[in-house]
Design a protein that fits this description.
alpha/beta, 6-stranded mixed beta sheet, disordered C terminus, 16 helices
Length: 518
């Protein structure tokens, strides 16, 4: 029962590390509790404890996913994600079956299972990765060295070390013999060192700047019917843009080098509908600057495409990016015939969205002749490591995240997404123009600082200068290497643990050596 309560507490506490609580230090404490609860549990009991902790974390943190569609999709998603924490519990519980906290093993298993969650099923759902609540923390700065997986590893290792120190302290108090301090102080000191190590990692923000204008046009109503008045949404973005242009013309605001509208700003196909196209072209001509429009295209035949379209003065539409990772069960239905047997609700998605085939980088000239290479990500794509990394590798010197949060109401979804963009800025060494239909929108510098954060369901603009950077971070160059290293390390741990249990005399000799050293 005590293990169960600690696992519940750890999972619940982990919620506090993410928006809208934003208590980043809750993450290593939560993982310390989880490591303590799982140590010595074995595989089967470890799975149950991990599942309980996962439910305590994901059910409240993903509440936004059912705000308009009901409890079933929300609880199904939360349970699916919790199963990966259950897998963590099973693997680490088996590795630590002898009852000793193994911080390195715990951290390695965390990285591997979190990476698995980010890829499966149907391309995975990496939302609420441990790193995504750390943009304000010293841990977050480590993202530039090894990306989100490395941040997760260090936090989990810190938590494991705290659990080790606590278990040794409790064991010492239960013993009649005087306990030496070193077995407790060493892991505690290492945990403290890891917690502040990120402060030594530089996060440069220098570089030539360009002016950006992000337009949050707002929608007629929140919820699933946000686009029932698709023309009103487009009109809102046109009106907000032209109002901002008045300030530019009057000299109250700088002239932007690039203007960005969010995802779904024009759900009327702007390449096929003459009225929508005319409105956009008139707006571009009034601005006399390039405009990125988030829209839907009635193509390919029988499908839709979620796109970012680049419009330039006097040229019209000059480039496009098609969302590479449509959201399963929202933008397309995988294995539709199978899921239809379980629920006819799947046919609410009448036409599947087609997937794009590669990164999108829009190249435009700033007023001073400098080249802006804007790398595009649409909505949940910002949570996928490979999509964001490949966009930078394709040449982006600034990132543009277009999103539509109208279907999630006044929930934590939008702040959680903004937190991901902030972590990406640090990880990839790029400024980010994060623009939503309804908020939150912001301009983010490469150190992860969000500027001019807007409120939800208001019409607003974000504007200002952001640095353009070409230097690549270590994380960008390493790519998936940290995750592969963790997978290999787990195989080694599994093998050595298996051998030691088959040949306990080897393990006993090693234990005696460890005791002598202590």
């Amino acid at each position: 029962m005590r293990r169960l309560l600690v696992a519940l507490l750890g999972g619940g506490l982990l919620c506090l590390a993410f928006p809208t609580f934003d208590i980043w230090a809750a993450a290593p404490v939560a993982l310390a509790l989880l490591a303590w609860a799982l140590t010595g549990a074995g595989g089967r009991r470890g799975f149950g404890l991990g599942l309980v902790a996962g439910l305590a974390f994901f059910v409240p943190s993903l509440h936004w996913s059912g705000i308009y569609v009901g409890a079933l999709p929300w609880l199904a998603l939360a349970t699916l994600e919790a199963l990966f924490i259950g897998l963590l519990g099973a693997v680490y519980g088996w590795l630590s079956r002898e009852g000793r906290v193994r911080p390195f093993a715990f951290a390695i298993v965390w990285v591997v299972t979190e990476g698995f969650r980010a890829r499966a099923p149907y391309g995975g759902f990496p939302w609420l990765k441990l790193a995504f609540g750390q943009a304000d923390a010293p841990f977050g700065r480590l993202a530039s060295l090894g990306g989100a997986p490395f941040v997760g590893f260090v936090i989990a290792l810190t938590g494991g070390l705290v659990a080790l120190a606590a278990s040794r302290l409790l064991a010492g108090r239960a013993s009649a013999a005087r306990m030496p301090l070193r077995p407790v102080v060493v892991p505690a000191g290492l945990a403290l060192g890891l917690a502040v190590a990120g402060l030594a990692v530089p996060v440069p923000t220098d570089g030539p700047t360009a002016q950006f204008l992000g337009v949050q046009g707002n929608v007629p109503r929140a919820g699933l019917e946000f686009n029932a008045q698709r023309r009103a949404v487009l009109d809102n973005h046109v009106a907000a843009t032209l109002k901002a242009d008045e300030d530019i013309t009057a000299g109250r605001s700088p002239r932007p080098d690039l203007v960005v509208w969010p995802e779904n700003a024009s759900d009327i196909d702007p390449l096929r509908n003459a009225d929508a196209k005319s409105l956009i072209l008139e707006t571009v001509d009034a601005l006399d600057r390039p405009l990125i429009v988030g829209g839907l295209l009635e193509e390919p035949p029988g499908q839709l495409s979620n796109v970012a379209l680049l419009f330039e003065p006097g040229k019209g539409n000059t480039d496009r990016y098609v969302k590479q990772h449509p959201v399963p069960f929202a933008e397309y239905i995988p294995n539709r015939a199978f899921w239809r047997r379980l629920s006819s609700q799947v046919d609410l998605v009448r036409r599947d969205f087609a997937a794009g085939t590669g990164p999108g980088v829009f190249e435009v000239k700033a007023a001073d002749g400098r080249t802006i290479r804007a790398g595009i990500a649409i909505c949940f794509e910002v949570a996928y490591d490979d999509i964001m990394r490949e966009t930078v590798r394709a040449g982006a010197n600034v990132l543009v995240v277009q999103t539509n949060n109208a279907t999630f109401g006044f929930t934590a979804e939008s702040p959680q997404q903004l937190a991901i963009s902030r972590l990406r800025a640090i990880e990839l060494g790029r400024s980010v123009v994060h623009v939503s239909t309804v908020g939150q929108s912001a301009l983010i510098t490469p150190d992860g600082t969000a500027h001019d954060v807007t409120s939800l369901f208001t019409q607003a603009v974000v504007r200002g200068a952001l640095p353009l950077r070409d230097a690549t971070t270590v994380a960008t160059r390493l790519g998936e290497a940290p995750e592969w290293a963790a997978a290999m390390a787990l195989l080694v741990l599994w093998g050595t643990t298996f051998v030691s249990r088959r040949h306990p005399e080897v393990a006993e000799t090693k234990d005696e050596d460890d005791d002598d050293e202590a």
